Amino acid sequence: MKFKNSALDVINTLCNYVVLNIVFLITCIPVITIGASLTALYSVTMREARGEYGYLVRTYIKEFKNNIKQGTQAFLIIAGLALVFSFNFFFWKALESPLGSIIMTLMLIFMFVLLCVIAYTFPLLARFENTTLQTLKNAIGLCFANVKATGALILIEAFVFFLAYFSSPFRILLVLFGFAFIAYVQSYVLVKVFEPYEKPQTCIQE
Predict the structure, then answer these.
(1) Which residue from 98, 170, 183, 187 has the highest number of Cβ atoms inside 10 Å of its Cβ?
(2) Residue 204 belongs to a domain
(3) Strand partners, 76
(4) How would DSSP label each residue in 132-172?
């Protein structure tokens, strides 16, 4: 009976994460809402990682509504920077000059740093009350203050997308619950990183 209950719990958890992932993908469809969707997703998965279990989808929808403004602001700033870096990279690549090679290298570095900043920005919005600009500054600081954790966050994403790129069945799994799974695994790293900075007055009410 114990084994049966455990198996049912695993199946139930998987089903919940499939539904969560689908809801996440649906809320990302307008594109501009991606920031709010990521913030809500990390709100849910970080609670799970801390052992604060609850209704995944219900909590997600609540957090999505609560973070629609700041999540969108952060996403627009990050998207704008990504466009600037990408434009400069391809512009200088077309010129094929020594100066262009230097600037292209700089743009690649900036884009990688931006990727690292993204790994912290939306989890920070999910966990702490702060202005959008201060959250971005804190994300930059955490990137360089926690190099190993930053590397782990990026490697988790890279590993999953690497498997999805080379494996068709894995792409199906990615669509079913992959994004929620990535956030869940990353949340264990993020909880450890955030722990020294957490204070009752700065944490979002649970």
Answers:
(1) 183
(2) no
(3) none
(4) HHHHHHHHHHHHHH-HHHHHHHHHHHHHHHHHHHH-HHHHH
Model confidence over 138-151: pLDDT tens digits?
999 999 999 999 99
Name the pLDDT band for 161 (thresholds 50, 70, 90).
Answer: confident
What percent of the chain has a predicted confidence (pLDDT) above 70? Answer: 91
Lowest-confidence range among 22-31, 58-67, 95-104? 95-104
CA distance 109 to 160: 22
Locate tokens 């049912």: which residue? 8
Domain holding 30, by residue range, is: 2-197
In a domain, 205, yes or no: no
Q: How many domains does the chain have?
A: 1
CA angle 158, 125, 114 (to 5 degrees): 40
Which residue carries 């079913």 as its tokens?
176
Whole-angstrom distance, CA of residue 38 vs CA of residue 45: 10
